Amino acid sequence: MIVETLSLRDFRNIAEAELSPCGGINILLGDNAQGKTNLVEALWLCTGSPSFRGGQEKAMVRFGAEAFGIGLSFRDREREQNIRYSMDGRRRKVWLNGVPARRPDLVGVFSAAVFDPVGMNIVLEGPAERRRFLDTAISQLKPGYAKYLAQYQAVVEQRNAILRDPDRYRQFAATFDVWDDQLSRLGTILSIYRADYVKKLTPVAAQIYGGFTGYAESFSLSYESTVFEPGQTLAVYSDDLIAQYRRVMEESRETDRKMRCTTKGAHRDDAAIEINSLPVRTFGSRGQQRSCAIALKLGEAHLCRLLTGDAPVVLLDDVMSELDQGRQDYILNQIRGFQVLITCCDVSNTLRMESGRIFSVKGGKIETL
């Protein structure tokens, strides 16, 4: 996957700009609030995922303008493609190769892996952030997964709506068999996908983390289900797994009624990240935590290339801060086989770059250095 040209109009602070990155390392250099992250965000929108910065798309329209426009020309392993993406404050419009499309249609077409300062939440925050990481990564590999996830979330919301109202709970108690049957089938699918992804991602991320540390520390990642037993094989979708899931849902109904929410299921699962067999969230240093988060995101990119044969574009926003020179050198010179865009404020961080291209970003304008 190679970005040929990114064109922006009235996006955030950028009135009009065009970026033509090289196929290797690209540095977007500039002070804060100049537009570096806006370029990365625009590329990420073209993956079909919501902005990693949150917020509504209508807020991305440049102040005083009526609409923003994004134009992306890229090349995958088979052909050249293009995406046009616009928002006029009321309606999103998407075109894929000149044909009108919906945002979900972009998932799996243009693939990228992004790390931004919020990406540290994979390590620092609660299970929801790690589930979000897994769900986003899997959806890019398996677009059908996003549909299963949406269906599962809708069922959980309906079940919780009943639980939040005790009177309604008594009235609709008989319907729980229906909801639990759906949750069991969909939740088992999600659990299998996630467990398989974690199993494949772990050695890849461990290799990258080892490159950061000179293999002086051990990295591990494991999927923690609230339904299935630790270490239980989750590989084949089967009636036995569905039945096991269903039993857990039935056994937790009384607790769910008291807590007024669904306390067990794929929406409560986690992924444990450890360094030297200790939880990095609790015992890791800031440098270890940041290195783990970056290793997971780079591992996501490597695994995508391994499984699909096509390398996603790697987007690293403010990744150099809080990293020592050895880790910075690894990012600048040891990430091979990917097109990489890195935002950076300090020019000194680029001095060890052996090859690539540097762009100056100032006031929403882009120049090649």
Q: What do you see in this structure?
A:
The protein is globular. The protein is built from eleven helices and 15 strands. The strands form three sheets. The chain has a six-stranded antiparallel β-sheet with strand order 2-1-4-5-6-7, covered by helices on one side. Strands 8-12-13-3-14-15 form a six-stranded mixed β-sheet, with helices on both faces. Strands 9-10-11 form a three-stranded antiparallel β-sheet. The protein has helices at residues 36-45, 121-124, 127-141, 143-163, 166-171, 176-213, 239-251, 253-259, 280-283, 286-308, 325-333, and strands spanning 2-11, 14-19, 25-29, 68-75, 80-87, 92-96, 99-101, 112-115, 219-224, 270-275, 278-279, 313-316, 340-344, 357-362, 365-368. Strand 10 (270-275) and strand 11 form a beta hairpin. With 369 residues, the protein is an alpha/beta fold.
Question: What secondary-structure arrangement, pairings included, does this model have?
Answer:
Blueprint: E1 2-11, E2 14-19, E3 25-29, H1 36-45, E4 68-75, E5 80-87, E6 92-96, E7 99-101, E8 112-115, H2 121-124, H3 127-141, H4 143-163, H5 166-171, H6 176-213, E9 219-224, H7 239-251, H8 253-259, E10 270-275, E11 278-279, H9 280-283, H10 286-308, E12 313-316, H11 325-333, E13 340-344, E14 357-362, E15 365-368
Parallel strand pairs: 3-13, 3-14, 8-12, 12-13
Antiparallel strand pairs: 1-2, 1-4, 4-5, 5-6, 6-7, 9-10, 10-11, 14-15
Helix pairs in contact: 3-4, 4-6, 6-7, 6-10
